[in-house]
Amino acid sequence: IVTYGLGIYLLNLLIAFLSPQIDPEMEGPTLPNSREDEFRPFQRRLPEFKFWYSYVKAFLTAGTMTFFSMFDIPVFWPILLLYFITLFVLTMKRQIKHMIKYRYVPFSFGKAKYKGKDTDVGGAGDGRDK
């Protein structure tokens, strides 16, 4: 039961981490429509530091709870596992559809790298082997 509770809590944290602070469905579009509008970058509902801090706290709390026998409740674990997987898939499917619909990606893949034109460095430049 402790692990199941931990999984549900971490799923809740993940959803808050992936969600925008201002929901486009409620507040309208946040991308600029004209030159005078200000561009607002993606702002998370749950900042990264608070996400990791809550994540570590949850694991430490769950680890501590395993030492006490009152939290050792016998359950048929395959049902809980199946329910958690179903909940995870349905929730993430809805979240990903929302991300695609409003065209926001909460991850950064680093700085964009641009390649220049391919130039002939070999010398003559006529394309024939000598």
- What value does the Rg take, in angstroms? 24 Å
- Helix percentage range: 40-55%
How many strand elements? Answer: 0
Largest sheet: number of strands, sense, barrel closure: none
| Overall morphology | elongated
Describe this structure in words.
- It is a single chain.
- The protein contains four helices and no strands.
- The chain has helices spanning 2-18, 24-27, 48-65, 77-101.
- The longest helix has 25 residues, at 77-101.
- The N and C termini lie far apart (74 Å).
Question: In brief, what are we looking at here?
Answer:
By secondary structure, the chain is mainly alpha-helical.
Layout of secondary structure:
Blueprint: H1 2-18, H2 24-27, H3 48-65, H4 77-101
Helix pairs in contact: 1-3, 1-4
